[in-house]
Amino acid sequence: MISVNKKALLTLFIPIFLFSACRIEYSFTGTTLDYDVTRTFSVENFFNDAGGGPANMGQLFTESLKEYFQRNTQLELIRTNGDLQFEGSITRYSIDPQATVSSPDPNLPDRAGQMRLSIAVQVDFVNMQNDEESLSRTFSFFQDYDPRNTSLLQVETELIEVIFENIIQDIFTATVANW
Fold it and tell me: Is residue 105 part of a domain?
């Protein structure tokens, strides 16, 4: 006959033993990568083909993409021919009025009350381990600012960082999170 202590131990250890036989892969970042198969990634320089924005915008995007994948995956960044490969370009950089404010003086034109900075990035992604997951897609995002209180030069760097952060999260989700 089994004593109460032995029954308690069996009740505790049998589920642990059963569940330890199951392999559950979970990532806090939500990736579905099999690190036994996919070990590296490479990022070609993204160029600014949009004709606007700061001169270093392509380099800023390239470095931000590399850093994001290094922080959120166990993949090793290599110069070329990674298991996952990224390349592309910035295809749109536009500043457009979103809302107008009527001038109190009827002789003066209406002014923009809200401006929108929009950026689009064309990304070609190749998964060398599973070609079905490769994609070619444009990702875009925007941020609004008030030109009555600030000039674009005052907020441009911050706006670009926020836009890039959102675009890179979308790229991450589309390429390695499979959402």
Answer: yes
| Cα–Cα distance, 97 to 63 (Å, whole number) | 30
The answer as to whether 9 is a domain residue is: no
Q: What is the DSSP string of 87-128?
A: EEEEEEEEEEEEEEE--SSTTSPPEEEEEEEEEEEEEEEEES
Whether 57 maps to a domain, the answer reads yes
* CA torsion angle 15 17 21 24 (round to 10): 50
| Domains: count for the chain | 1
3-class secondary-structure state, position 14? helix
Q: How confident is the model over 21-42, as pLDDT tens digits?
A: 433 333 444 677 889 889 999 9
pTM of the complete model: 0.79
Angle at 115 between CA 112 and CA 117, to 5 degrees: 155
